[in-house]
Structures are given as structure tokens and as C-alpha cells.
Amino acid sequence: MEYEPVIGLEVHCELKTKTKLFCGCPTTFGNEANTQVCPICLGLPGTLPVMNAKAVEFAVKIGHALNCAISKYSKMDRKNYYYPDLPKAYQISQYDKPLNYAGYLEVPLKEGMKRIGITRAHLEEDAGKLVHAGGKAGRLDSSDYSLADYNRGGIPLVEIVSEPDIRSADEAYAYLTELKNILLYIDVSDCNMEEGSLRCDANVSVRPKGTEKFGTKAEIKNMNSFRFAKQAIEYEIKRQVALLEKGERVVQESRLWDVTENKTKPMRSKEEAHDYRYFPEPDLVPIVLSEDYVKKLKGQLPELPGAKRARFASKYGLTPYDAGVLTSEQELAQWFEEGAKHTKNPKGLANWIMGDMAAKMKEQEKELKDLKFDQKKLCELVDLIDAGTINSKQAKEVFAEMFDAGVSPAEVVKSRDMAQVSDPKAIEGAVDKVLAENPSVVADYKGGKQGVIGFLVGKVMQASQGKANPKLVNEILKKKLDS
């Protein structure tokens, strides 16, 4: 029997506000444990939370970017449960009236665009963090004890819940990549997964292909890497299919991804839905937004990745793949677009950015801000190639020098006397000499072995010290050999 995966993702995105959601404590990452706390975020009796207006603004912008309906009236609720990293024994979140709902995300896949629904994107406070110590490499299932750090408790975040529209680990990866890109474009989060600013839970189930009823799901919790999320989903799909094929049942539970063993492991059973006993947060008034406020925030959004991809493809003649690569980071898109102003061949510019430039930057661990040359110099190189002044092999040598020293490509070509020979008469003389010196190769060509022309081209290029225009060399050689 063939099975179909059904996947829904819950992404927790910490907002880059300077203070926490309900108090003035800073949100800086990495400070000494429990130094960024106060009676409010510790939930001490007699304290009153006050809503962070910037967090609401960022949450509304996320709603707009994800094509959500924005609630003019929403409220905060208490989600009651006890866990050591939640000292007040409840989390202030949103339940039945979330800020954003009924949205969607257009995700680029190999086979085209796919629309994945967004159930809700609601505002809530983050919990603290447990540091599991002792045992084997700090693993939860073998720790001797846990330490609680409440610095993160109260940091504002938006939980973005997708519809169960995802059908493979690759689709999940593409969705997460596009979502992260959007969040970075609208500048509401640093999306630093290593620091926990972006975390993902995946609800995974399988069902016989062609059926509508959902299978029993397992929830994979707290993945802080898209690569791990993809691997965990792939593993979980195979695990569930194997169980069903053996006639066993899938248990509804929470699971963790063990990066050391590359497998999901049971965390806790969820055979019955947990009753969080939600009720409206009594210490906070509802969030009431005016039409003008909502409209103003929508107008502040930048051009989003999807729109930028489409424009790059149309305006600059790029393939969908090229446009996707160049818009994958906002800074890179801006760098390319500034460069496109200085050349008539933006596709050539794109090829150099995605090819040699990207390879060199990766090799030397450099960012755009570290480059010793600007867009104009790279465009100058593109134009030298297009004009036939240098060939592609020479261009790589020039680029290497430009990358390392920031020098002008034209100056490198001039100082090293690299200008390509495109005079047909000069090339014809070199071709005649090579043909005269290699009569057996000429005979092979005339006898049907046309592949030997590559040998002759190499000889002409060697004779010209690599300066001859390869295209002209090929044309003249073929004309003479065929006559």
C-alpha cells in the first residue's frame, strides 16, 4: 500500500523588540543566567503586565506578510500548565481570538508554486529555558539535573501555525526557508536558530494515498535547524509507515529529534488532548486596532521575496532559479540590483555573483560587506567579456585578482597585456600555421573524426598565448577544414 504524509508546522518566531512583552526587561541573548528578570516576567504576586506596543506592530506586519486576516479585536489568554521554565504556571498567549488568522504562503517548489495555508499567527510570551546538565553530553534522557534560566521568559514571539497542507520533508524545508526569508525581509526577527529566535515543531502523520481521513499524528518538538527538521520529518514518515505495514498502530505522542542517533524518540504521551484551561487574561485589556493603523503597517512592508523574484525574472531576464537565489537574502538582492544599473547584461552579472563570487566568499568565509570591490567593478568585468576583450578563462584570472586586491578589471587586463585578439586576419594566420603543422589531424577530420577540431583549437590558442578569441578560432578553423 502506498502512503501519503500529512504535515503541519508550528514555527515560533521571537520578535526583535528591545524589551519583553509585558515588562521593561531587556531581550539580549547570551547574558548571565537570570540577570534579565523582574517580578513581572517571573510572575510574582501583585504584579501587572503592560503590553509592548512594538510587539503588536511586528505581529501585525507578520500577519500582512502572510496574507492573513487581521483581527480588529483580539485578546490575550492564560494557557495554564506547570513546567519548571514557566515560573507563574501559566503562559500568556492567544486562544480563540488570535491577532492573525486564515492566511497563506506561496512556496516555490521544483514543480512550481504551492499555496500552504496559515491557520493563525498569534502573539504570546516565550518561556524560560532549562539547561540539562551532567550525564552524557547534556542529553535530556541522561541528565543528572536541570538548571533554569528565566532570561528568555517573557520575550515576545509569534507562533505561526500552518494548515496540514505539506506533503513531504522537502516541501516542509521549502516552506520554512520561505517563511524565514519573509521574516528577515520585514525585519521583525533576527531568525537566529542557534540562539533560539526561530524554532519549529512538526506534526506528522501518514494515511493511505487517496483517502481523506487523517492518520494519527506525532509531534516532533523544538527543532532549531531546518536541516534537522527535514531529517526528522523524513525519519518520522518512514517510522510510521513501517509500523502500519507491520499491522501496528501509531501512538499520538510528542517526540524529540536525537541528532546523535538521527532518529526521533518518545518525549511524552499525548493520547488525550491536554486541557490547558484557557481563560481571558484578567490583567490585560483586549487589543483593539483601528483600520488606519492596520492599513498604515501594511504600507510599511517592503517588497516581499515572492514579488521580488517575479520582478527580477521579468525585468532582468533571469530564470526562476536565478531569481530565487538572488532574492534569498535581502542584502544580496539589493547588491545585485544596484549592480544591474551599471551593465547591459544583468544575466551575466547574476552568473558571476552566483558562481565565482559565491564560491570565493564561501571559501574565504566573507560576507558582502567584506568585499574589496563594488558592483561597478564586477560589471566592468562582465562588459570586458561581452566586448570580446578577454575570454572566459582570462576573466577567471582577472576576477581572482579583483577579489583579492579590489583592483579594476580593465587595469589588470592592461597591465598583464591580456587583451583578446579578435582580428580575423591575425587569427587566420595562426590557423594556417597550425593546419600546416598538423596534416595528419587535418586528414582525420576530413575522414570523419570531427572531434579532433578541439585539438586544433587548443594549438591555435597555445600559439596566441591564450589571447585569440575562441569563438573566432572555431569559426575560422571549421571554415578552412570544410572547404
Task: Report what the structure shows.
With 483 residues, the protein is α+β, with helices and mostly antiparallel strands. It has 3 domains: 3-297, no CATH class; 303-415, no CATH class; 424-482, Arc Repressor Mutant, subunit A, CATH 1.10.10.410. Helix content is 39%, strand content 20%. It is built from 15 helices and 16 strands. The protein has helices at residues 53-65, 169-185, 226-245, 291-299, 305-316, 320-326, 330-340, 346-363, 375-386, 392-405, 409-415, 424-437, 439-446, 453-463, 470-482; strands at residues 3-14, 69-70, 73-74, 77-80, 90-93, 100-109, 112-125, 129-133, 145-149, 156-162, 198-208, 218-223, 253-258, 263-269, 279-280, 287-288. The chain has a 9-stranded mixed β-sheet with strand order 2-6-7-10-1-11-12-13-14. Strands 5-4-15 form a 3-stranded antiparallel β-sheet, with no helix packed on it. A hairpin with a 4-residue loop joins strand 13 and strand 14 (263-269). Helix 2 runs antiparallel to helix 3 and helix 12 packs across helix 15. The relative contact order is 0.10.
Question: What are its keywords?
Answer:
483 residues, alpha+beta, Arc Repressor Mutant, subunit A, 3 domains, nine-stranded mixed beta sheet, three-stranded antiparallel beta sheet
List the helices and strands and how they pair.
Blueprint: E1 3-14, H1 53-65, E2 69-70, E3 73-74, E4 77-80, E5 90-93, E6 100-109, E7 112-125, E8 129-133, E9 145-149, E10 156-162, H2 169-185, E11 198-208, E12 218-223, H3 226-245, E13 253-258, E14 263-269, E15 279-280, E16 287-288, H4 291-299, H5 305-316, H6 320-326, H7 330-340, H8 346-363, H9 375-386, H10 392-405, H11 409-415, H12 424-437, H13 439-446, H14 453-463, H15 470-482
Parallel strand pairs: 12-13
Antiparallel strand pairs: 1-10, 1-11, 2-6, 3-16, 4-5, 4-15, 6-7, 7-10, 8-9, 11-12, 13-14
Helix pairs in contact: 2-3, 5-6, 7-9, 9-10, 12-14, 12-15, 14-15
